[in-house]
Amino acid sequence: MTFPRRVVIGADTHLDTIHLAAISDTGQPLGDAEFRTNPTGYWAAICWARSFGEVVTVGVEGTSSYGAGLTQAMQANDIHVVEVNRPDRSARRRQGKSDPLDAYSAARAVLAGHGLAVAKDPHTGALKALLIARRGAIKARTAAIQQIKDLLVTAPVDLRERYRRYPTTLRLVEALAGCRPRAHEDPTTVSVLIACKALAQRIGYLERQDRELTAELDALTATINPALRAAYGVGPDTAAQLLITAGTNSHRLRSEAAFAMLAGVAPIPASSGKTSRHRLSRGGDRAANNALHRIVLVRWSHDRRTRDYVARQLAAGRSKNDVLRLLKRAIAREIFRHLTAPCPIDDYSDLRPARQARNITLTAAAAHFNVWPITISRLERGLKRDDTLATNYRQWLNTLLIDAA
C-alpha cells in the first residue's frame, strides 16, 4: 500500500507576490514557485502545494501583514498554517537573500519546529483597523494643536495678545473655530486667522472621529472579552491593544510566562558581583508593554489595593521603579487569565431599579458606603467596575428589603 508523500510548505510574502517552497517531511527540496497575491493566485498556490502530496503544515512569514490573504485562503481549505520568524541574520549573511531562499528557510523552520506561532484569528484585524484609525486621529489632532501654537508665536502682536488670554487649549480652539478672518484689514492677520481657523475646525472633526472610534472599540472589546474590558484600569484602547497582541484566538498563548515575554514584562537576571537583581525584558511587543504600563499608572493613582501594596513595598525599601516592575508582572498574570479563560462578569443593571424601588436617593446610598454619589451613579450605569462595592451594595439593598418586609 502506497501512502501519499507528506509535504511542508514555506512562504515568503510580499505586497504583490508570494513565493512558496515545498520540502518533504525528511527535508528534501521539492520545488518552489511564485504566485500573485489575489484569490486566483492563492488558489493556484494551494493546487501547486497539493501537487507534491499531502500538505502537513504551511509556514508563513507575516500572517497578519503581507501573508494575511494567503493565511486565510489556506485555512479556508483546511490547511494548517503557522507563523514563522524572519530568517536569522547570521544565516542570511552566510547564504545570501532571495525569495526562494527565504521560502525554503521558512519551510525548514516549520520542519524543525523552531520559532513557530499560531496564526492570529482574522477577527483581530477588525480591532487593529479601528485602533489604527483612532490613534491616527489623535496624532493628527496633536499635530494640528501644535501648528496653531506655532502660528500664533510668530503672528502679529495684537493677534498674539488677543489669543494668549485663553487659559486652556480647548477654549483657544473654540475661539479660533468661530473667528472671522475677513473682519480684519491687515493681510498678514487675515492669512494667519484663516490658517488657524482651518486647523481649529480640523481639530473639532478629529475629536468627533476620536469619540466615534472609541465607542466602536468599546463595544467590540466588550463583546469579544467582557472580563478583560471590565478589569480595573483597562479602557477601550488598552483592551484593544492587548487583544491585538495576544490575538482573539487565545489558544495561541502557550503559557502565562510566554505572554509575559511577549509583552516585555518577563523577569531577566541582571546580577553582577555582589548585586543580585532582576530587570524586565526589553523585548516583546512594546505597544502591549505600554498598555500594561498605563494600567499600572491608573491603579497606582486610583485603586486602593494597589496603593496599599505600593506603600508596603516602599516601606520595605524597594524603589519606585522596582515596585513598577512588580506591578507590571502581576498585572500581566491577571491579563493572561482574562485572555485565555474569559469569565462572565457581574451585571450591575439590577442595582438602580432596586434602589429606586426602595425610595433611596443616590446621596443616601453614597453616604452609607462613604463614597461620592457619582461613584454610585457610574456603578449603576455600568460605567465603573467595582465588583466588591457592587456586591456590598446589592447585599445592603436586599437587607433593607427584608427589614421593610
UniProtKB/TrEMBL annotation:
<protein>
    <submittedName>
        <fullName>Transposase IS116/IS110/IS902 family</fullName>
    </submittedName>
</protein>
<dbReference type="GO" id="GO:0003677">
    <property type="term" value="F:DNA binding"/>
</dbReference>
<dbReference type="InterPro" id="IPR003346">
    <property type="entry name" value="Transposase_20"/>
</dbReference>
<dbReference type="InterPro" id="IPR002525">
    <property type="entry name" value="Transp_IS110-like_N"/>
</dbReference>
<feature type="domain" description="Transposase IS110-like N-terminal">
    <location>
        <begin position="9"/>
        <end position="153"/>
    </location>
</feature>
<dbReference type="GO" id="GO:0004803">
    <property type="term" value="F:transposase activity"/>
</dbReference>
<dbReference type="Pfam" id="PF01548">
    <property type="entry name" value="DEDD_Tnp_IS110"/>
</dbReference>
<dbReference type="InterPro" id="IPR047650">
    <property type="entry name" value="Transpos_IS110"/>
</dbReference>
<dbReference type="GO" id="GO:0006313">
    <property type="term" value="P:DNA transposition"/>
</dbReference>
<dbReference type="Pfam" id="PF02371">
    <property type="entry name" value="Transposase_20"/>
</dbReference>
<feature type="domain" description="Transposase IS116/IS110/IS902 C-terminal">
    <location>
        <begin position="228"/>
        <end position="310"/>
    </location>
</feature>
